[in-house]
Amino acid sequence: MKIGIVGGTGDIGEGMAMRLSPLFDVIVGSREKDKAEATCELGTETLRKRGQKCSLTGVSNQQAVDDADIVILAIPYKHLIGTLDTLDGFDGKIVITPVNPMEKRDFFTYIPPPEGSAALLLKSLLPPTARICTAFNTIAANRWKLLDVDLHYSVPVCGDDAAAKQQVMGVVNHISKLQAFDAGPLAASHLVECLTPLLLNIARYNKMKDVGIQFH
Amino acid sequence: MKIGIVGGTGDIGEGMAMRLSPLFDVIVGSREKDKAEATCELGTETLRKRGQKCSLTGVSNQQAVDDADIVILAIPYKHLIGTLDTLDGFDGKIVITPVNPMEKRDFFTYIPPPEGSAALLLKSLLPPTARICTAFNTIAANRWKLLDVDLHYSVPVCGDDAAAKQQVMGVVNHISKLQAFDAGPLAASHLVECLTPLLLNIARYNKMKDVGIQFH
C-alpha cells in the first residue's frame, strides 16, 4: 500500500514519514520537490543506521496525491484551503486529516470553521467521492520523530466510509503501539480536533511535554 | 474537610459519595431529604460490610451547600438552571461542576450554552465570590459505583481561583488512582466538557463500556 504525505517535509509530516516508511511505501510530498527528496535521503539514511529498511520517495504534493492509495494531509490548518487550491486528483482516494483548527489566545482553544470542523471544511473542498477520515490529530510532532520512543497512545478515527475507516484504523494499528478507536461519523470530528488544544493546555499548565491521550 | 454533593442521590452523586465518604465528611443533598438519608444509610452499610469507616449525612440540597467547604454539583445539565434557582449561599464556596452539556443526535455531541460552557453558564448564575472549578467530567457513574475497581483515570481541572483549584486537585488525587491535571482557566472548560460526548461515542462505536481517559 502506498501512503502519500502532503506537507511531508513539515514538522509532523517528516516524523510520520519516518514511522510509516518501514511499514508502507511512503511518498513524501512538498511544494518543492527538491526539499522532499532531501528529506527522504536523510530519512532513509537515519533508518538505515538503525538497521531498518524503508521505502521513501520525495515528490511534489500533487504527485503524492496521484501515486498514493491513502493521502495524509500533514499541513497546518491555516494552509489547508491554500494547499487544496493547488491540488486535484482526490476522486475515490482515502484522505486522512490530522488537522486541528486552533489558536493560542490566553490559552489554546478550538476555533472551528463555519462548517463545524476542519474535517467538514475539507469535505466541502474535495470531490464527493473522496473518502475522508479524521485521524492522528493528537500525536505531537516530537513524538513522531523520537523513533526510539514507543507511541503508547489512542487514536480516535472519524469517517463516513466504513471500508475506508477500517483501512485507516488498520494503518494506525500498525504504527508502534498506537491503538485506533472508531470515534463515529465525519461530523463528530470536532470532538477529536478539540483534543489537541486541551492537550497543549495540559502540557503548559502542568509543565509537561508532548502530552498524549489513551482511552480505556 | 466537608464535601457537599448537590444531587447526591442521583446516578453519579451516589457513587461519588461512596468513594469520597471514607476520605472526607460527605454531606449528601437531595430535593427530598428523606431520600438523601436513605442513600446515606445504605451507603454506610455497604461500606461497613467492606470494613470501611465513612462519614455520610443526608440533607437537603440547600443544607449540602450551607454545611460544605466544597460543593459538587452532581446534576444533569438540563437541571442546572432549575436547581440553582432554588439554592443560595454560594458566596466564597468552592463549587465543582462535572456538568456536560451534550445531546444524543445521530451520535453524542457537545451543545454548549451561549456562555460557551456549562462552567461559564454556572459562573453567570452564582455570585462573583463563588470559586468555581470544572472537574470529574469524564468519570462514568458506573465507575464511581464499582468500589472494587480502581479509577485509573486522568481528571482535567479548570478554574480561575488558583488556591481553590489546588484544593480541588488535592481532593481528586486522594480518590482511588485518579490523577488531577491543571487544564487552565474556567474559560477553557468547554475543552473538558466535550470529552464526555467523545468518550460516549467511542464506547458506542467500539462496543466498550464506561470509557475513561488518561493523559501522559
Topology diagram in text:
The structure is a homodimer of 216-residue chains.
Chain A (H helix, E strand, L loop, with lengths): L1 E5 L4 H10 L4 E6 L2 H17 L5 E6 H7 L2 E4 L6 H6 L8 E4 L4 E3 L3 E3 L7 H8 L5 E4 L6 H5 L8 E6 L2 H13 L4 E4 L6 H5 L1 H11 L7 E3 L1
Parallel strand pairs in A: 1-2, 1-4, 2-3, 4-5, 5-8, 9-10
Antiparallel strand pairs in A: 6-7, 8-9
Q: What's the multimeric state?
A: homodimer
What's the helical proportion of residues of chain A? 25-40%
Distance between the termini of chain A: 30 Å
Helix and strand sequence of chain A? EHEHEHEHEEEHEHEHEHHE
Walk across the major sheet of chain A and give the strand order.
Answer: 3-2-1-4-5-8-9-10
What Rg of chain A, in angstroms, do the CA atoms define?
Answer: 16 Å
Name the pair of protein chains with the most residues at their interface, and give those residue counts. Answer: A-B, 32 and 32 residues
Structural class of chain A: alpha/beta
Nearest-integer average pLDDT of chain A: 97
Q: Name the overall outline of chain A.
A: globular
Beta content of chain A = 15-25%
Helix count of chain A? 9
Describe the structure.
The structure is a homodimer of 216-residue chains. Chain A has 216 residues and is α/β, with parallel strands linked by helices. Helix content of chain A is 38%, strand content 22%. Chain A has helices at residues 11-20, 33-49, 61-67, 80-85, 118-125, 141-145, 162-174, 189-193, 195-205; strands at 2-6, 25-30, 55-60, 70-73, 94-97, 102-104, 108-110, 131-134, 154-159, 179-182, 213-215. Chain A has an eight-stranded mixed sheet, with helices on both faces. A two-stranded antiparallel sheet of chain A has the order 6-7. The longest helix of chain A is centred in the first third of the chain and has 17 residues, at 33-49. Chain A is globular and about 40 Å long. Chain A starts with a strand and ends with a strand. Chain A binds chain B through residues 106-107, 109-110, 152, 156, 181-185, 187-188, 190-192, 194-195, 197-199, 201-202, 204-206, 211-216, and chain B through 106-107, 109-110, 152, 156, 181-185, 187-188, 190-192, 194-195, 197-199, 201-202, 204-206, 211-216.
